[in-house]
């Protein structure tokens, strides 16, 4: 593993097998990565939702190493793009509408049967948890890697310098209805079995956020499991070369084994 944990964000990977479109906006697309020919695997589709605090400067490219590694393990993968803040249509409600549209459309676009697994990192983890709560189309399960699981708390902590306010158009007292709709911590229980993986050394999204979410989930009987990694930080969770990677794949396997 590189000494720089952020090196994974720019690591080169092979191009996707193809790109599919789930809407008319230029960012309503997903890169498809398929298992190697003859792999003999029958794993379910994984829809990967990237992070970057919902901001336009971060796109799906930075999660390419994770998506490519999952395909090598035998998973068909849809590396999802969506409208983000700082561009037309991004933020509330467009970002959320894109997740709903994509998860509903991608199995058919890829000619795959059965509900997918939804895997998200950071802000993508937030969107995955949120989708599990609203669930207009079923998912087999959710893997949330260092998710922003509590938007009101993330606003209070000013994560990434106003990222939540940019997403929702203000703070909890400015647009309370949006926080009610968009915050997964207020919409428990989610409908899908959920595995959260979070590093104790995470300086981007505090692990306490996942601890509180998992504790609330247990109180209402929601199917949520938290795996804490004491030696991991934020970006190790999307790095197939990191010591955190086995915990990510184990969480994924647990949802279909």
From TrEMBL:
Q: Which Pfam families match?
A: BD-FAE
**Which species is listed as the source?**
Phytohabitans aurantiacus
| Domain BD-FAE-like positions | 31-212
Q: Which Gene3D superfamilies match?
A: alpha/beta hydrolase
Q: Which InterPro entries match?
A: AB_hydrolase_fold, BD-FAE-like_dom, GDXG_lipolytic_enzyme
Query: Keywords on this record?
Result: Hydrolase
Superkingdom, natural source: Bacteria
Please identify the protein, giving its name as recorded.
Answer: Lipase
């Amino acid at each position: 593993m590189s000494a720089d944990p952020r090196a994974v964000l720019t690591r080169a990977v092979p191009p996707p097998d193809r790109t599919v479109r789930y809407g008319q906006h230029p960012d309503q697309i997903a890169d498809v990565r398929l298992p190697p020919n003859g792999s003999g695997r029958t794993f379910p589709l994984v829809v990967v939702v990237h992070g970057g605090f919902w901001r336009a400067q971060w796109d799906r490219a930075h999660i390419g190493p994770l998506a490519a590694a999952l395909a090598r393990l035998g998973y068909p993968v849809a590396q999802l793009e969506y409208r983000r803040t700082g561009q037309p249509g991004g933020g509330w409600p467009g970002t959320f509408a894109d997740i709903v549209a994509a998860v509903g459309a991608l199995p058919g676009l890829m000619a795959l049967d059965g509900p997918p697994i939804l895997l998200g990192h950071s802000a993508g983890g937030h969107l995955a948890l949120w989708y599990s709560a609203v669930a207009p189309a079923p998912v087999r399960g959710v893997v949330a890697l260092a998710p922003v699981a509590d938007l009101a708390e993330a606003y209070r902590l000013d994560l990434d310098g106003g990222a939540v306010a940019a997403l929702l158009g203000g703070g909890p007292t400015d647009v309370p209805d949006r926080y009610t709709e968009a915050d997964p911590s207020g919409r428990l229980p989610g409908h899908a079995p959920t595995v959260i993986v979070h590093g104790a050394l995470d300086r981007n999204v505090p692990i306490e956020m996942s601890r509180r979410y998992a504790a609330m989930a247990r109180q209402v009987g929601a199917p949520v499991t938290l795996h804490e990694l004491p030696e991991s930080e934020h970006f190790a969770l999307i790095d197939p070369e990191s010591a955190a990677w086995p915990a990510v794949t184990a969480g994924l396997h647990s949802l279909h084994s």
